[in-house]
Amino acid sequence: AQTVTQSQPEMSVQEAETVTLSCTYDTSESDYYLFWYKQPPSRQMILVIRQEAYKQQNATENRFSVNFQKAAKSFSLKISDSQLGDAAMYFCAYTPFGNTPLVFGKGTRLSVIA
Amino acid sequence: GAGVSQTPSNKVTEKGKYVELRCDPISGHTALYWYRQSLGQGPEFLIYFQGTGAADDSGLPNDRFFAVRPEGSVSTLKIQRTERGDSAVYLCASSLAQGAFNEQFFGPGTRLTVL
Lengths: 114, 115
Fold this sequence. Notes:
The complex is a heterodimer. By secondary structure, chain A is mainly β. In chain A, the strands form three sheets. In chain A, strands 2, 5, 6, 10, 11 and 12 form a six-stranded mixed β-sheet that branches. A four-stranded antiparallel β-sheet of chain A has the order 3-9-8-7, with no helix packed on it. The model of chain A has no long low-confidence stretch (mean pLDDT 94). Chain A has no helices and twelve strands. Chain A is globular. Helices cover 0% and strands 48% of the residues of chain B. Chain B is globular, with a radius of gyration of 13 Å. By secondary structure, chain B is mainly beta. In chain B, a hairpin with a 2-residue loop joins strand 5 and strand 6 (53-56). Chain B contains no helices and eleven strands. Chain A binds chain B through residues 4, 6, 33, 42-47, 50, 52, 91, 93, 98-107, and chain B through 31, 33, 35, 40-45, 48, 56, 59, 89, 91, 93, 95, 97-104, 106-109, 111.
């Protein structure tokens, strides 16, 4: 069974600094999709960034970037120039095919300190 | 356009009662997903619709849980004989489901509390 592990239940970062959230996953598939979702207190999940496993280049979206290590099955999220609005739960997620249910990790709660 | 909406936002019920949770997907989205998020956990898959039919219901925990999508748009998650362990946030997501990949857009969820 596919699993997603987030080993950091909580993280904190100073405003304007950089923080990295960790995620590992287990799969026997060679092609798949990985995601980072943000869930603020409003509960609505927001897609932050995604990575297709067949692409070697790490995805970036403005201040958010990933470090995708396929052999190690690692998928970390780096947030640069952290802002107060980045404070939320962050979930790593996986799906073996593009339009199938997501498998989520347990999440990392990120606090941003002013 | 409007996003995914879910009603009610919060539902409090007593053990043993029947509840219905509604999801209105984004117009034109053929795929619809239900997830359950218990306190301190990530969302867990329950059931997935492609059009009107359930493409995968392997995540439903037992036969007290049932979901329908009769016209391929709005979906209702039905829970019979609720138990305290059913207390959670129930999330709905929808996507176009065409081609290799389409983003799942989530609703704000329904928080179910079973007393």
